[in-house]
């Protein structure tokens, strides 16, 4: 049976419902009883960022700025909390009833800020709409394993899968899986000037490119209840503006956009707190298998044997990023330092032997592509340092070619470079999302790498329901990639938030996908 929607139809009833919900079942502050003092007044916090927001609609594009805003407005069936790397219930408790049947049981009495009830019909609408829209640059392609969503009753949503997919619980935590009010959102177009979600905050004001004002939604019933009264999110131009805002007190919190020099100054002072965590952002050098030189395993393995990541991150980024020794970074299931195990320390003699065993005795010439803007100000220094290291061995001659982003993408696709600088921040918090861009045919980085062994392991890890067995498959797949070297991991980024000394719980705001939850912040 399809769930039937029940909606509050009178203004008095909506108001009564809101008041009732505001006093029931909240997990962020206890209700005052007897002589217990009421909780302290909750402050509206001011936050500054350089992030651009291109879409308020979860079915639209989802770069970091958009994800940060959406993650605080909308609720998902499951979520990731700072104390647990695996999904936990938010709007629902979910489980596999069969390898291709995933059932989510919604909490009772969920509502949106406009008083509308949140039921399984809203869940079905949200996914049907997102898959139907197929917005360019949007998230629909992440959910290709979903055949349909059915609603046997108002509190039950069933995901019927085309094939087993162990990634689904993680996919249900991302902003693309946000639950929308089906009576508020149009079916056939995006809604980008307003928003209606059931998350920790309600959007009460929005000026595109300038400011978003969020007010605590007291009807939220999930794992991320707000400990503050709301957030005023302001967009500023650059690192200097971020620094000025947070040091002058115009912003309580500042994030996304600090340059290394400004961060070093902030750390050395005593005006603010600087909180960092490893982020999901990674950089690597991808070999292009359309190149006759890069197709030779000995060339790729010799480069891997020579790369000194510790020196690279010091020279190019002043140690503001962390050396990375596998395609899957630390913090994600199944991670192993596969390149460190395969190649140990940088070693010229070992690299020479690899090339000789591969039938190469002369100096190997490589064209290394990089792009000046898209991957940040350190990209040029990183490319120069890789050239220096390879040429210092006497085994390689490296020609650098820097090209701006639109043409760079075309040249990568055409196979112009032997290897090229690339970066990745996953779309969902699961190890698999680091593998798809490299392993799968027609993948994002279009490196033309083909491996039956890698694809077989990937098919197995996607279908595997036992997490321990799945992590073993992921470990084996990373070892295959370290041996084949279709891509050479370089570094893992850090997510940095700068806050006033009186702001508490800053570390709990950091999400591994590099966006920020504001609900834990308080003065």
TrEMBL record:
Location in the cell: Cell envelope
A GO biological process held by the record: peptide transport
Record domain Solute-binding protein family: where: 97-441
Family, per entry: Belongs to the bacterial solute-binding protein 5 family.
Pfam families in UniProt: SBP_bac_5
GO cellular component, one term: cell envelope
Keywords, ordered alphabetically: Signal, Transport
Highest taxon of the lineage: Bacteria
The protein, known as: ABC transporter substrate-binding protein
Signal sequence coordinates: 1-21
Gene Ontology molecular function: peptide transmembrane transporter activity
């Amino acid at each position: 049976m399809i769930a039937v929607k029940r909606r509050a139809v009178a203004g008095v009833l909506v108001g009564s419902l809101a008041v009732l919900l505001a006093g029931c079942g909240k997990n962020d502050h206890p209700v005052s009883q007897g002589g217990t003092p009421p909780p302290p007044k909750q402050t509206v916090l001011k936050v500054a960022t350089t992030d651009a927001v291109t879409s308020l609609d979860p079915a639209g594009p989802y770069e970091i700025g958009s994800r940060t805003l959406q993650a605080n407005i909308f609720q998902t069936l499951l979520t990731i909390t700072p104390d647990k790397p695996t999904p936990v219930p938010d709007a629902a408790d979910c489980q596999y009833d069969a390898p291709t049947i995933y059932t989510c049981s919604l909490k009772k009495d969920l509502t949106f800020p406009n008083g509308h009830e949140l039921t399984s019909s809203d869940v079905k609408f949200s996914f049907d709409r997102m898959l139907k829209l197929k917005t360019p640059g949007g998230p629909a392609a992440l959910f290709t394993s979903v055949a349909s969503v059915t609603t046997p009753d108002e509190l039950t949503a069933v995901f019927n899968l085309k094939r087993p997919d162990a990634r689904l619980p993680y996919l249900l935590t991302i902003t693309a899986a946000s639950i929308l009010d089906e009576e508020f959102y149009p079916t056939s177009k995006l809604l980008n000037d307003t928003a209606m979600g059931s998350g920790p905050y309600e959007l009460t004001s929005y000026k595109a490119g300038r400011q978003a004002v969020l007010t605590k939604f007291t009807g939220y019933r999930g794992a991320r209840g707000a400990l503050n009264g709301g957030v005023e999110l302001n967009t500023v131009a650059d690192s200097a503006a971020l620094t000025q805002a947070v040091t002058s007190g115009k912003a309580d919190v500042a994030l996304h956009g600090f340059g290394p020099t400004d961060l070093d100054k902030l750390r050395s002072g005593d005006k603010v707190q600087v909180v960092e965590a490893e982020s999901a952002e990674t950089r690597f050098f991808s070999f292009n298998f359309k190149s006759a030189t890069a197709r030779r395993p000995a060339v790729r393995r010799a480069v891997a044997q020579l790369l000194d990541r510790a020196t690279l991150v010091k020279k190019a980024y002043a140690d503001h990023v962390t050396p990375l020794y596998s395609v899957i970074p630390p913090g994600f299931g199944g991670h192993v330092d596969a390149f460190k195990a395969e190649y140990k320390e940088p070693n010229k003699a070992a690299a020479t032997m690899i090339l000789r065993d591969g039938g190469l005795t002369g100096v190997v010439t490589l064209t290394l592509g990089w792009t000046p803007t898209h991957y940040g100000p350190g990209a040029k220094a990183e490319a120069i340092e890789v050239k220096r290291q390879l040429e210092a061995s006497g085994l390689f001659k490296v020609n650098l070619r820097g090209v701006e982003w639109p043409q760079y993408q075309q040249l990568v696709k055409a196979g112009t470079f032997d290897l090229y600088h690339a970066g990745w921040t996953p779309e969902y918090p699961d190890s698999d999302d680091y593998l798809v861009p490299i392993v799968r045919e027609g993948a994002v980085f279009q490196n033309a790498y083909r491996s039956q062994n890698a694809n077989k392991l990937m098919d197995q890890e996607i279908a595997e329901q036992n997490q321990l067995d799945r992590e073993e498959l992921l470990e084996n797949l990373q070892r295959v990639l370290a041996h084949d070297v279709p891509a050479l991991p370089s570094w893992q980024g850090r997510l940095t938030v700068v806050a006033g000394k009186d702001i508490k719980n800053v570390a709990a705001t950091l999400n591994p996908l590099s966006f920020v939850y504001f609900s834990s912040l308080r003065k």
